[in-house]
Design brief:
Layout lengths: L1 E6 L3 E8 L2 E9 L5 H17 L9 E6 L3 E2 L2 E5 L4 E5 L1 H8 L7 E5 H12 L8 E6 L3 E7 L2 E2 L20 E2 L2 E2 L2 H5 L1 H8 L7 H7 L3 H22 L3 E5 L1 H5 L1 H4 L3 H5 L9 E4 L6 H14 L2
Parallel strand pairs: 1-4, 4-8, 9-14, 14-15
Antiparallel strand pairs: 1-2, 2-3, 5-6, 6-7, 9-10, 10-11, 12-13
């Protein structure tokens, strides 16, 4: 059995898998007030998973997708979780004494989703594609020759309008793709005092010129992706990207202005559902166990 966990900034999903079949599954609010709260929540989930096992079944691996950069199986801070701490989830889990020395694999959540898209989604149709999440933030998971490219790929933080004033700050820089066109960036730029949703902003606040500018920023960001990875397809996931796909995804002419690569990729909506993260975690653990 494999225990897959998708630890998000707002919700956490977990599921047990056996031979490419999902069994027990839960979804609950993430408790991220402190690191201790996160670890306690993971311990509770592991105990719940163990309680589902029958006969001689056991958990052979645990894979966790986390919303932050990961190096050497350790998460280095997470804006969605509200922490800058370095967290070794695998060490914490081993210290619980619940699952012995089973492997615990930690990866960035978008990387996990990339594995799911590779094995269950458009990876069956394209050898070279990029999974791009347009949501609260912006992230990229490139697949080249059927293999997911891993690493700290922060293309969402490429600066698109260095001279824009007033500047739109983001971590240690300003006027990046995230600040200009992500869900959080749009809310910051166009939100109203009563904190209306991004969907309501599109319906009642943004003008046609505003939307055209968003498409141009996205064309610029996607142009860099095309120039870097030359994908056959760009697969869109994330609430902003899926809900506003027709409004904010550039057409071929708009994209062509920001890359010399030809042919241009097609833009596609992921066909996968909200469990893309836990499926990805499962495939990561399965690949690890198979060596």
């Amino acid at each position: 059995m494999i225990l897959a966990i998708d630890l998000g900034g707002t919700k956490t999903q977990a599921a047990l898998f056996h031979q490419d079949e999902m069994g027990w599954c839960i979804t609950e609010k993430t408790h991220a007030e402190t690191v201790s709260d996160l670890i306690a929540q993971l311990e509770k989930i592991i105990r719940q998973a163990l309680a589902q096992l029958t006969d001689n079944a056991k958990i052979n691996a645990i894979a966790i997708g986390v919303p932050g950069p990961v190096a050497k199986n350790v998460m280095h801070g997470s804006a969605p979780l509200g922490t800058q701490e370095i967290i070794d989830f695998a060490q914490h889990i081993r210290a619980m004494g619940l699952v012995g020395e089973v492997p615990v694999i930690i990866k960035n959540d978008l990387q996990m989703a990339g594995f799911s898209e590779l094995y269950r989604g458009y990876g069956r149709d394209y050898q070279n594609f990029c999974l791009v999440s347009l949501s609260t933030g912006i992230g990229v998971a490139p697949v080249l020759s059927g293999h997911l490219l891993e690493g700290k790929l922060e293309l969402g933080h490429q600066v698109l309008a260095a001279d824009l004033s007033p500047a739109l700050p983001c971590t240690n820089h300003a006027n990046c793709w995230v600040a200009l066109a992500s869900g959080s960036g749009i809310a910051s730029r166009f939100g109203m005092p009563d904190a209306i949703s991004t969907e309501e902003i599109f319906l009642s606040v943004l003008s046609d010129d505003d939307i055209r500018q968003l498409r141009r920023y996205n064309a610029q960001g996607f142009g860099t992706i095309v120039s870097a990875y030359d994908p056959q397809a760009i697969v869109i996931m994330g609430s902003l990207g899926l809900q506003q796909f027709e409004k904010i995804i550039p057409d071929a002419e708009e994209l062509a202005a920001f890359t010399i690569n030809r042919p241009l990729p097609v833009f596609l909506k992921t066909k996968q559902s909200a469990d893309i993260g836990i499926w990805g975690a499962y495939f990561v653990a399965k690949e690890f166990l198979n060596g």
